[in-house]
Automatic annotation (TrEMBL):
Keyword field contains NAD: yes
Source species: Brachybacterium alimentarium
Domain GFO/IDH/MocA-like oxidoreductase intervals: 140-263
GO molecular function: nucleotide binding
Coiled-coil spans in chain: none
Keywords, in A-Z order: NAD
Gfo/Idh/MocA-like oxidoreductase N-terminal domain: residues covered: 10-123
Taxonomic superkingdom: Bacteria
Protein name: Dehydrogenase
């Protein structure tokens, strides 16, 4: 029997797959301060044997509701297929169990809005989301720089993230993978949610999106394996997002142009920050064409116009999940502010589904007055055509 003690959050793992197994291992090894492994649940009988071998003595349930009612857990993490995140989160919070949901928050905004509304009605219960990339020093440093106002207002941003190469065998592993009814999409709901979250976290929430998606372009799947999208942040700022799973070489490059400088991030580790001596419009107004010629011929000291700072960051892969779990435990124990409140997950879901809806309809999608019912209807058409999964409501 796992007993609750002060500053010990007993975490229940819902789904002992790759992610759930990693979390269970971290907890079993004592790597999460203020948190212990309370119980495990999975409806696959083979997982019970695995749990018994790796985590002897930890209670195992084949029904997650039974685990929630067992008294063995104070909190849960939902490492299950995307469609189930809202349903399980609502059930857990309704029973007073703190919940850390995996990304994405869901597949369509209607179910995520219901989850957020339910969580808001139970503020005494912690609701967080696993946006572990928000702990990466590359992006936390950039967040601080942007919020300082030093670079001014955003003008344009572009993120090319194609380091998600997946062979056909990856999709053939499971009948639900890259299906509309089983997963709810392709690269946008599986591989790219972290970048969609970071992009909005750094640059602001887009107001509109227009997208071209390729469905089953280079893989034998129903869902998107390549995405090109243009977004409107409002006040003249725009952005481009490109991702795919068919580039074996891959690129990870984020650019953000501001009134007083530019940031380029390569491979999520090398950061180049160019700071202008004045905002670009002022330089444009004051520099003569002779000055411009001297600058580009190398006859002017460039520091009169801009300075360049380069930073190289070490990989923190693996530590990020530990940081989020530790933060989640600290919030439950003493109210430490969350790295990512669960309600923020809807932003990425709305953007991803907005890209899909834009591609399906051929029009720009308003993300502020978002057509949630239209998206769900279009999604259900595709689920029906697959003939493998039930419609969603």
């Amino acid at each position: 029997m796992s007993e609750k003690t002060e500053n010990n959050v007993r975490l229940g793992i819902i789904g002992l797959g790759a992610q759930g197994g990693m979390y269970a291992g971290l907890l079993a090894d004592g790597r999460i301060p203020g948190m212990s492994l309370g119980a495990i649940t999975d409806n696959d009988p083979a997982k019970k044997e695995l749990a018994t071998q790796k985590h002897a003595g930890v209670p195992f349930y084949d029904d997650y509701i039974a685990m929630l009612d067992s008294g063995e857990v104070d909190a849960v993490v939902t490492t299950v297929p995307h469609f189930l995140h809202p349903e399980m989160t609502i059930t857990a919070i309704g029973k007073g169990i703190h919940t850390l949901t995996e990304k994405p928050a869901g597949v369509y905004t209607k179910q995520v809005e219901e989850m957020n509304d339910f969580a808001a009605a139970h503020p005494e219960t912690t609701f967080a989301i696993m946006f572990n990339q928000r702990t990466n020093p590359v992006y936390t440093d950039l967040k601080a720089l942007i919020e300082s106002g030093e670079l001014g207002a955003l003008r344009h941003t572009s993120w090319i993230i194609t380091t998600w190469w997946r062979p056909q065998g990856y999709y053939d592993q499971s009948a639900w993978r890259a299906t509309w009814g089983g997963e709810g999409g392709g690269v946008l709901v599986n591989q790219a949610p972290h970048q969609l979250d970071l992009w909005q976290w750094l640059c602001g929430t887009p107001k509109k999106v227009f997208a071209k998606l390729a469905f089953g372009f280079q893989r034998d799947i129903a869902t998107e394996d390549e995405v090109n999208a243009v977004v409107d942040f409002g006040e003249g700022a725009t952005g481009h997002f490109m991702t795919s799973t068919n580039d074996i070489i891959g690129t990870d490059r984020l650019e953000m142009l501001f009134d007083k400088g530019k940031v380029v991030v390569d491979a999520s580790k090398k950061v180049t920050i160019t700071r202008l001596s004045e905002d670009e419009r002022s330089l444009s107004d004051k520099m003569t064409m002779q000055d411009v010629a001297k600058l580009f011929r190398g006859e002017m000291d460039p520091s009169d116009v801009y300075t360049v700072e380069e930073k190289e960051y070490e990989s923190v892969w693996g530590q990020q999940h530990i940081d989020v779990l530790t933060n989640f435990a600290a919030h439950v124990n003493d109210g430490t502010p969350l790295i990512a409140d669960g309600t923020e997950g809807i932003n990425g879901v709305r953007l991803a589904s907005g890209m899909q809806l834009s591609a399906w309809t051929g029009r720009e999608i308003d993300l502020v007055d978002y057509p949630a019912e239209e998206y769900l209807a279009e999604l259900n058409k595709r689920i029906k055509d697959e003939g493998k999964f039930p419609a969603r409501s």
